[in-house]
Specification:
Elements (H helix, E strand, L loop, with lengths): L3 H12 L19 E3 L5 E6 L1 E2 L2 E2 L2 E10 L7 E13 L3 E6 L12 E9 L7 E2 L4 E5 L4 H10 L56 E3 L2 E3 L5 E3 L8 E3 L91 E4 L7 E7 L22 E4 L5 E7 L34 E3 L8 E3 L67 E5 L8 E5 L7 E9 L6 E4 L4 H4 E11 L7 E4 L5 E5 L6 E10 L2 H5 L32 H4 L1 H17 L1
């Protein structure tokens, strides 16, 4: 059994080896101290572990080996492993035992080699140089160094040590320091550390198994006055400096570089704030390198009736952007902003810029890719009335949607004034189109397939006066209300329709065109016969250029003219009348069959077979006792049927 003196000696050998050496870790070397011991085992080793200039706070695995030389040499005893050692503010303390024969004599020197492995290392790191361990009665220099670095005043073998005085090496037995002990047990044989010295390992951090925790006050990194539970400040002004990094380096599974959560009814899971009023700053900058990554993913999980936001962005600047999406890939199908809503009343993208002045954007999307989409809204709900993009303005002079430059493309049906269009474009209301200088057509329709119509107008009212199409001109002459460049036709009669001249307020007057199986041109006039009962009639100088197969009619006016005849047929755009009463008046009519280049290039048959796609159909099926469905124009007349057909086609495509 050991005596009290022996116990004290072992106690001193373990505790007097107090050092504040800074180990070289990851390429940075800090000042080292000689560690002295009385040469007995085991002994206590204390140190401070720094990584890249900052104290380590982690659970660290250590391997200690003892050597007889600073470099090379022979290993003394067996390696000592300390697994999961708590290192707090870089400080740690371990008990080492290399065997009773590790230190032989009082002058033998040994060197301690240390290898560490923390959670930030991918493999063990051996620290260099080795730490010199010398056999000595006490480690006075080590105590002095610790006291100096910790900002305490060392004692000098006296009960009233002065600030930052030397540590007594061979002084008399002194009493305790003013405000604390040096942790050596009893009154020191070689002086005490005075003032307010603390044990280097004393810390408010607590260890619970593999956990380290702190429950008192705030924690500051880069600042001595933390304002929050964890307050990190980057004290430098260097470019690309990062105050805090969260890194989840797992290659698989759902990992989080940072997880932030708030339980408050008005809380923010995370808030980024760039307070500089100038320069290109980011309240939050997020990046994903994954081939299916999301730079930012916002998820509002509440399924109730409240207005929740997967992402909410707001700009108050007079030139602010509520959301700015930028896809800068020069190839591929990219999206500056992709908004998608699955709710039956969802919004694929909703942007709000509530400044009342300046140029601001609720949503601003830009894409520089050749196949890019600046803004894309996608509402794929099969129910309800989803809106891929919704534009709304309360200003009567504002624009719910405003498009400039390039082209605008819409697929499938568009409704203006209706939410259920039956056609590619359906307008309930009035369409106004204006042809300006350089624009020749206010409205243009083209028909590329047989049996189709470039422009179709149908009057569907069941009573009153209906107009399938109305065309007018404000000029009295020189303009055309309707102009057909090609043949024109009508299934009914052709008439002019005017106010009745005898009762214009209450009646209409109709006059109808004369029909014929060939295109006739008619010319008429009167002529007075000369003394020989003859007269030449001059026709327009273009007459022979556009007519053939002439037909003549002569009527005597005022007296019979039984002997009137055509003395010379039309030649040189004139003909001669003879056989009349001298001085008599003759009314004449000449009819020709139209023979201008248009008619010569296009047939004008009076009867021909219907095209294949119209056979079995009728212009007016009801006149022949046939149903309306057999009408050639039925699809234009029956709007509800067309809508039903379109709906059925959409349903079939969905089933396919």
């Amino acid at each position: 059994m050991m005596t009290t003196e022996t116990n004290d000696r072992h106690f001193l050998s373990r505790l007097l080896l107090l050092t504040a050496i800074c180990l070289m870790y990851r390429g940075e070397v800090f000042g080292q101290q000689v560690v002295e011991t009385k040469g007995e085992a085991p002994f206590t080793y204390r140190g401070q572990l720094m990584r890249q200039g900052k104290p380590v706070g982690d659970l660290v695995d250590f391997e200690f080996t003892l050597w007889d030389a600073a470099e090379g040499g022979s290993q003394i005893g067996q390696p000592q492993w300390v697994i999961g050692q708590a290192v707090v503010e870089g400080l740690f303390s371990v008990s080492l035992d290399f065997g009773a024969d590790s230190f032989i004599g009082n002058t033998t020197e040994r060197w301690l080699e240390i290898t560490v492995l923390s959670s930030l290392d991918t493999e063990p790191v051996t620290l260099v140089p080795r730490q010199r361990i010398a056999v000595a009665p006490v480690c006075a220099v080590c105590l002095e160094d610790v006291a100096r670095r910790r900002g305490r005043a060392p004692g000098s073998g006296t009960a009233t040590p002065t600030d930052r005085g030397p540590v007594a090496v061979t002084g008399d037995v002194g009493r305790d320091g003013r405000n604390g002990r040096d942790g050596l047990g009893k009154d020191g044989a070689n002086g005490h550390v005075g003032d307010t010295f603390e044990d280097p390992m004393a810390s408010p951090w607590q260890v619970n198994g593999s956990d380290i925790y702190y429950t008192t006050g705030n924690v500051g990194i880069g600042t001595s006055t933390p304002q929050n539970d964890l307050y990190v400040v980057n004290p430098t002004a260097a470019d690309n400096e990062i105050a805090m990094v969260g890194w989840a380096n797992g290659a698989t599974g759902r990992t989080f570089g940072g997880w932030f959560q708030s339980l408050s009814s008005q809380g923010r899971g995370i808030q980024g704030y760039a307070s500089s009023t100038t320069g290109l700053t980011f309240g939050g900058l997020f990046q994903s390198d994954g081939d299916e990554g999301r730079g930012v993913y916002g998820f509002a999980k509440n399924t109730g009736d409240s207005a929740t936001y997967g992402g909410y962005f707001q700009a108050k600047s007079t030139k602010g952007r509520g959301v700015f999406g930028y896809a800068d890939s020069s190839t591929g199908t990219t999206f500056g902003v992709l908004g998608q809503a699955r709710s039956s009343r969802g919004r694929g993208v909703y942007g709000l810029a509530n400044s009342t002045s300046g140029l601001n954007y609720g949503v601003y999307g830009q894409s520089n890719s050749t196949d890019g989409v600046a803004v894309m809204g996608w509402a794929d709900s099969a129910e309800g009335s989803p809106k891929a993009v919704w534009g709304h303005t309360e200003n009567s002079g504002g624009f719910a949607g405003y498009f400039t430059g390039g082209k605008t493309y819409f697929e499938k049906r568009i409704g203006v004034g209706t939410t259920s269009p039956a056609y590619e474009i359906e307008v309930v209301g009035t369409i106004f189109a204006e042809a300006t200088d350089g624009v020749y057509e206010a409205i243009r329709g083209e028909s590329a397939a047989s049996g189709t119509y470039a422009v179709s107008g149908v009057a569907v009212a069941s009573s009153g006066t209906r107009y399938g199409g109305w065309f007018g001109t404000l000029a009295s002459s020189g303009n055309y209300a309707v102009y057909g460049d090609g043949n024109t036709g009508a299934s009914g009669v052709k008439a002019f329709h005017i106010d009745h001249p005898m009762d214009p307020a209450n009646k209409f007057l109709n006059h109808y065109s004369t029909e014929s199986p060939v295109p006739y041109l008619t010319y008429r006039g009167t002529v007075v016969l000369d003394g020989a009962g003859e007269a030449w009639v001059d026709l327009p100088d273009y007459f022979e250029a556009i007519n053939r197969d002439y037909h003549y009619q002569l009527t005597a006016v005022g007296a019979p003219g039984p002997n009137l005849y055509i003395a010379d047929k039309i030649s040189g755009n004139r003909f001669r009348i003879a056989g009349g009463t001298p001085g008599g008046e003759v009314s004449w009519t000449v009819t020709g069959t139209r023979d201008d280049p248009w008619v010569r290039a296009h047939e004008t048959p009076d009867a021909y077979d219907k095209p294949v796609e119209q056979r079995g159909l009728y212009i007016r099926p009801e006149l022949y006792g046939r149903p309306q469905s057999e009408g050639i124009f039925a699809r234009y007349k029956d709007r509800s049927k067309r809508a039903a057909q379109e709906g059925e086609a959409d349903s079939q495509r969905s089933r396919d």
